[in-house]
Amino acid sequence: MKALIMGFKSIVELHMDLKDLTILVGPPSSGKSNILEALAVLGYAYKATLEPYIEGYSSEKRTHIGAINSYIRSIVCHDLLNRFAGASSSNIRVDQVEVQVTCGDDPNTVSISYRLHQNKDKLMVYNIKTRLARPSSQLLDVEEVADEGVIFLQFLSNLIQREKKPGKPLEVEQYQRSEGRFQVIAPRLYGFDRLYTTGNIMIGKTGSLYPVSYLDERAFNLSRILYTNSDILEYINDVLSGLSGVEVMPLSDGRLAFIDRGREVGPSSVSDTVLRILYAYTALLASKPLEKEVEGGIHVRVLPLVMLEEPEAHIYPVAFYNLAEAVVESIAKGNKIVITTHSGRLAQVIWDHARKDGYTASVYYIHRSIDRGTRLYTVNMMLLARQIEDLDLIVNQPSENIDQMVEDNILTPV
Questions:
Q1: Which domains does the chain carry?
Q2: Listed residue (324, 357, 320, 364) closest to 23, CA to CA
Q3: What are the b/e assignments for 102-132, b being 16+ CB within 10 Å?
Q4: What is the pLDDT of residues 335-390, one digit of tens each?
Q5: What is the pLDDT of residues 278-324, one digit of tens each?
């Protein structure tokens, strides 16, 4: 699966081959999270357009989506563009799915053109406008104009952040079918710290406002996922009880209870590590590819791209092996996985597990130069293994040693 990112934040132009497992390592501020966020723009566009048909939302129940900066760090629109290169737009493409992000005169409005190609004659195009989130409300506007062979929708929804106010119903101005089968890449960025996940886990949501087939990135539906998927709940409780003596119990009202050595406690009484494991494992195990006819003659196959941002934070090192097993379990369901980490040890453990089970895996070293922005280098993991070298030695290398690592064939520029 080929990915191309141009003009997004610290990225001037970046090409990447997404395997079953892709791991990004490197020092802070090198651009690892920017790569995840660029891919997450594709996921946001999917949420705003096709996901309601896949998940079965009614038109008045789209208020959960939120503005784009509910998922991606941005205060004004131009924060999403590469200002060093003077980019006027950013383009992200994975296989036959692409988005273009542009900014206009209003710094609080982000415009996204979302295209899904089947071939040169059949495509779907959506034009999305989203207001960046402020303390109260934000606006999402998806617009399409009819043309030959192109589907166009228009709807306007008021998306209220942390308020229980219904949005406006879906308004379809023009619609024209472009029959065919489309594969949609659905990247989902799971960052425990960036999305205020602890508070959302404590709130819990069970209503139909939230997805039923995967964990919402903000974890609003975590309790519901566990309540309706006993196999996932059992898997996670086996891990938690072995690591910490704690088990989780989803309640019918959407809240989570925890059993800590025989006593029931709330989420605020358990270790932060328990909540992080619960979040990451549910994200990995709940996702799976879906295929559905969304309208007459239009079939959509959704391929999840599960992205974990620094899952090693506050996790016991012994839990690295449990996390690696969950990653492999998720790949076996048909998902693609992308992980960013500062831990060379975690990267090695997960890469080893995936390779031993016969899955494709790549490790990229991410470096940011002053003139060329974020750059990728493929890490020669087999050579490291033969030299009995620790990947942490590479992760912690000063930037001036990169040329030497390239000369030693440890790193290969992409």
A1: 2-413 (3.40.50.300)
A2: 364
A3: bbeeeebbbbbbbbbbbeeebbbbbbbbbbb
A4: 999 999 999 999 999 999 999 999 999 999 998 887 778 999 999 998 887 776 77
A5: 999 999 999 999 998 876 677 889 999 999 999 998 888 888 999 99
Specify the length of the chain in residues.
414
Write the CA distances from 38 to 82, 103, 167, 342, 397, integer angstroms: 12, 15, 27, 19, 26
How many Å apart are CA 301 and CA 298, to the nearest integer? 10
Residues pairing with 363 in the sheet? 23
How many whole angstroms separate alpha carbon 103 and alpha carbon 68? 13
Could you give the count of Cα atoms lying within 13 Å of 339 in the half-sphere of its Cβ?
34
Q: What is the pTM of this model?
A: 0.88
Distance between CA atoms of residues 199 and 268, nearest Å: 9
pLDDT digits (tens, 9 = 90+) for 173-201: 233 345 677 889 999 999 998 888 888 88
Burial class (CB in 10 A: 0-12, 13-18, 19+), 388: exposed
